[in-house]
């Protein structure tokens, strides 16, 4: 698309005539120039700023989070993660940003009207297609492939996004005691997939306006996936960790002693964990679930220290810089603001 749009921009700025096209058959492999054969178009002069399009920006930009699904696949194989920010994250994000800026810039200098789906600008006109000529055939194949490319991309990513949303909603429901029974779990198991699938399918069948679809679904459902559900999960997880995992100062002081314990003590502890007393088995399970104050190991203390900044633990080098409750409030306010702005814009056009 970059090469096609650049070639079209050069043709527009050099004022090529239709006779020039007929003498240069090699240009016909570019599907974006066929609209110029019908009528000449002026050089695109897009406005630098359009305030009325700001609400649509909120909904469309939510789809950028799709790129975040690739981050775990990039991070997991890396053994040394001490400098992963400078070595991987920054170069990857700069590369993606540069590509998006280059694609957007070539689009606004090559087309006076950009379709809701940018690839539709490369659909060739069948009136000028002659399948007996190789350049025309290439233009037809390339044009339809580019038009169907968003279908391929969305079809491949929709199961990933749907699975992520299903897992987030299921995890959120498990935080409430009302969904703890087996009957409630079975109901969630068979109803949540429909909750995830029916809204996007219903909206897709109702409207064919892609701009409306991306803005509306991106602002409401995208904000829920990207901001609201993660913020609630973080809030509930921190609250659970703070209240249900009560680490005492004595446990932290004996961490060094636990690390230096001999094999006999470790074997004794292992036997106690493997062969619990049947009379108090349920009590021990409850203590493990809600934060046992009788059994604590060096491994559990080290894991807790790496995963969270508990009020009794020293700050870990891997601790998140967004541990303040203020960041959760900001995420929820931003999600509400984006949703209101997009809804006002969509209702205004009705």
UniProtKB/TrEMBL annotation:
Pfam families found in the cross-reference section: Aa_trans (PF01490)
Residue ranges with Low complexity bias: 277-287
InterPro entries assigned to the protein according to its UniProt record, in alphabetical order: AA_transpt_TM
Recorded topology in the membrane: Multi-pass membrane protein
Keyword annotations of the record: Glycoprotein, Membrane, Transmembrane, Transmembrane helix
Top-level taxon of the source organism: Eukaryota
One GO CC term, this protein: membrane
Stated name of the protein: Uncharacterized protein
Localization in the cell: Membrane
Region (Disordered): 270-289
UniProt family annotation: Belongs to the TMEM104 family.
Record organism: Schistosoma mattheei
Transmembrane region(s): 88-114, 134-166, 212-235, 325-344
């Amino acid at each position: 698309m970059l090469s096609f749009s650049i070639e079209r921009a050069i043709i527009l700025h050099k004022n090529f005539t239709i006779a020039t096209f007929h003498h240069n058959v090699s240009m016909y492999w570019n599907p974006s120039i066929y609209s110029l054969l019908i009528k000449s178009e002026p050089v695109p002069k897009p406005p630098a700023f359009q305030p009325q399009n700001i609400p649509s920006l909120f909904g469309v930009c939510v789809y950028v989070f799709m790129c975040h699904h690739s981050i775990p696949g990039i991070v997991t194989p890396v053994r040394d993660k001490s400098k992963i920010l400078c070595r991987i994250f920054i170069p990857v994000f700069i590369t993606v940003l540069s590509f998006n800026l280059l694609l957007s810039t070539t689009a606004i200098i090559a087309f006076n009207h950009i379709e809701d789906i940018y690839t539709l600008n490369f659909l060739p006109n069948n009136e000028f297609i002659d399948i007996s000529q190789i350049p025309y055939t290439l233009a037809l194949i390339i044009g339809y492939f580019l038009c169907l490319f968003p279908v391929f991309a969305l079809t491949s990513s929709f199961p990933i996004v749907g699975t992520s949303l299903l897992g987030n909603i299921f995890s959120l429901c498990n935080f409430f005691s009302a969904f703890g029974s087996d009957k409630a779990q079975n109901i969630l198991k068979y109803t949540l997939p429909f909750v995830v699938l029916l809204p996007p399918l219903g909206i897709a069948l109702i409207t064919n306006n892609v701009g409306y679809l991306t803005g509306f679904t991106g602002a409401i459902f995208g904000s829920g996936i990207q901001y609201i559900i993660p913020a609630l999960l973080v809030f509930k997880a921190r609250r659970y960790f703070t209240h249900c995992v009560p680490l005492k100062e004595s446990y932290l002081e004996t961490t060094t002693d636990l690390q230096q314990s001999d094999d006999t003590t470790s074997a004794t502890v292992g036997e106690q964990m493997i062969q619990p007393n049947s009379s108090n088995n349920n009590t021990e399970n409850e203590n493990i679930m809600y934060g046992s104050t009788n059994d604590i190991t060096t491994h559990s203390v080290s894991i807790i220290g790496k995963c969270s900044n508990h009020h009794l633990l020293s700050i870990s080098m891997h601790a998140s810089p967004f541990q303040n409750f203020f960041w959760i409030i900001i995420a929820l306010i931003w999600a509400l603001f984006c949703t209101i702005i997009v809804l006002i814009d969509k209702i205004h056009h009705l």
